[in-house]
Amino acid sequence: MTPTDVFSVVNILVLPMWILMIILPKWKVTKFLMHFKVIPIVLAVIYVIYIVQALMAGGMMDFGSLASVMDLFTTEEAVLAGWIHYLAFDLVVGMWMLTQNEKLRIHQLIMAVCLLATFMFGPLGFLLFMIIKLSKGKTA
């Protein structure tokens, strides 16, 4: 399987989970997948495969400067590993936000905006959720 194929597979893998979390967050299938972190675990396994391959091929990675990090992302495999990292961690953050919302009871439409922002822009959605969470804490 080429890196391009894997890129397509991982994107297809996360999309249904995000749709479930945004549209049907209380459905038992959504809750099952969130509870057992099925999709992030699959992504983590794929990520580890690519990282181990990179370590075996090139040794330790240098994250010490922007230039060295840019140099790491000059191969398809490294960019793919980075992409999978984003997909997995953004999804875990989205799952955490939904779990937090069981106590906060933020309206589902507002949560949908937070989740969509997290899916598309990661930290932006997280920041939006944290601001809303903080404002809920002040009013509660």
UniProtKB/TrEMBL annotation:
This is Integral membrane protein. The keyword Manganese does not apply. InterPro entries: ABA4-like. Signal peptide: none annotated. Keywords: Membrane, Transmembrane, Transmembrane helix. It comes from the Bacteria. The keyword Transmembrane helix applies. The chain crosses the membrane at residues 6-24, 36-58, 78-98, 110-132.
